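Supplementary Note 3. Input sequence used for the single-chain structure prediction.
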Amino acid sequence: MVLMAGPASAKLLDLRAADPVLVLTQYVRHANRPFYLAKCLIAARAGHLSVMQS
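The predicted structure, written as discrete structure tokens, is reproduced below.
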């Protein structure tokens, strides 16, 4: 999902609030229930990104 960084994240990441970021959310299922593991924000200035899913 691509969103704008927003004021709080932008300040932490040294971005502008309107900069686009890619949001990657990781979770795992245990006993058929999802558990949140991590959320990663990747700024457009990171350059070319290849994502592989298995």
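The chain has a mean pLDDT of 84. The longest helix spans residues 7-13.
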